[in-house]
Design brief:
Nicotinate_pribotase-like_C; four-stranded mixed β-sheet; nicotinate phosphoribosyltransferase; about 20% strand; ligase; nicotinate phosphoribosyltransferase activity; 8 helices; Nic_PRibTrfase-Fam
């Protein structure tokens, strides 16, 4: 599946056709990459879903397991919907927006906080002041407010180490494993009348549900849960990346992946996306 696609449990995201030895050489690496980055992208998407009209920045570099994890975690957060990253290396490599604060060491390099804040604000836009270098309430906030009044159009917000925005007072059934043999495809079944997804439909590779007038979708575990679907489009979520050892897929930019993720989420009804007690999205098997 392409990056930015919305996927669900028990769906084959990657399909590798190779000898056993060749497939096992890349198995662990691919699982590591997919599991980590989908974890970050999913978390970012859920946060952005709660604050759709607010800006969200990724600041995870210092807490990532190592530098490559920080780079790819930043990329995954942007795909999931975040607006920027504090990791300038990731920003440069993937051409994504960067944002962040100055360092506490920068404040300490000046004779006082006012001089540090003023110098920083003169040279940057959308500034974020760290006000807890010395004393948050007695010196940090008053000096930040003083600079904000002098250079108000340059100030975004004031932050301490807990992420509190000082000036605006804004605080920041056990699934059963099912093994389905054979080469498979995953189709998203989309109702032509309302443009919403009826569910995902896992088929064998030689099946094409778009050729059917009616399909029966049933739960792979609770098979008594089923429905018939007509007047639909079947979107194949799999896309070939490597063919006969050659890369044939042209990867889009990270921001294009983010746009695709937003569009994919729009296909889902709100009850599948809500944070509290979401409905289980249908992932069904073909009858074959």
């Amino acid at each position: 599946m392409v990056e930015g696609e919305v996927v669900f449990a028990n769906e084959p995201i990657l399909r590798i056709e190779a000898s056993l030895a060749e497939a096992q050489l890349v198995e662990t690496a691919l699982l590591n990459i997919v599991n980590y980055q989908t974890l970050i992208a999913t978390k970012a998407s859920r946060i952005k879903h709660i604050i759709p009209n607010e800006s969200a920045a990724e600041f995870g570099t210092r807490r990532a397991q190592e530098m490559d994890a920080a780079i790819w975690g930043a990329r995954a957060a942007i795909i999931g919907g975040f607006d920027s990253t504090s990791n300038v290396r990731a920003g440069k490599r993937f051409d994504i927006p960067v944002s962040g604060t100055h360092a506490h060491a920068m404040v300490q390099a000046y004779k006082d906080e006012y001089a540090a804040f003023h110098s920083y604000a003169k040279r940057h836009k959308d500034c974020v002041f760290l006000v807890d270098t010395y004393n948050t309430l007695k010196s940090g906030v008053p000096n930040a407010i003083r600079v904000a009044k002098e250079l108000g159009d340059k100030i975004n917000f004031i932050e301490n180490d807990e992420g509190v925005l000082e000036d605006t007072i804004k605080i920041t059934s056990n699934a059963e494993k099912v093994s389905t043999p054979g080469l498979k495809h995953v189709y998203r079944i989309i109702d032509r009348e309302n443009g919403k997804a009826e569910g995902d439909y896992i088929t064998l590779a030689d099946e094409n549900p778009q050729e059917e007038e009616r399909i029966k979708m049933f739960h792979p575990i609770h098979t008594f849960v089923s429905k018939f679907v007509t007047n639909f489009d079947a979107k194949n979520l799999h896309q070939k990346v490597i063919d006969d050892g050659e890369i044939i897929y042209e990867s889009p930019s990270v921001l294009e992946m983010q746009k695709y993720a937003f569009e994919s989420l729009e296909l889902l009804w709100d009850e599948y996306k809500r944070s509290l007690n979401p409905e289980e999205y249908p992932v069904d098997l073909s009858q074959k």
